[in-house]
Amino acid sequence: MKKLLVLMMALAMTLSLAACGGNAEPPASTPESTPAAAERKDNVTPEQAAAIVDIMAKMGPLYEEAAAAATANGWDQDELAVQELNAVYAIMDSARVGLGELDGYGDTSTEDIDAVIEQYQAMLDEMPNLVTKYSEPYSN
Question: What is 16-72 written as a DSSP string?
Fold first, then answer.
């Protein structure tokens, strides 16, 4: 369980660094720099985008099930459980933003996106364990 939390935190930090990565040059004042004329960078391939969408589509219902089970069984009293579920939600939201916004993954390379997808998959693989854990009554 601690490994999952560490993995989720590492992934969240990776995504936040990728999202904050940028160009040190000041933006040009030409019409090409306006959002309407900007284009998405080609750092996320269509296959990678499809993989992220597929993983998140599977993770969403598992997250909802884990969150509902945690609330129903008193796990919302456990700070670590709340942090775990919040981390999963934040990562799912980061994936949504990454795919939905122009340059959502910043300057992250295509190879690094592959690593992010592997981390998303590892989280997805761990979600049934969270559902099982939170399906049990909470006890101090």
Answer: HHHHH---SSPPP-SGGGSTTT----TTS-HHHHHHHHHHHHHHHHHHHHHHHHHHH
Residue 57 falls in which region: left (phi positive, over 0), alpha (psi -120 to 50) or beta: alpha
Q: Is-contact 110 45, C-beta < 8 A?
A: yes
DSSP state of 74: T
- Across the chain, mean pLDDT equals 79
76 contacts 37 by C-beta, under 8 angstroms: no
pLDDT of 127 strictly over 90: yes
> If you count DSSP H runs as helices and E runs as strands, how many of each does the chain have, helices first?
4, 0
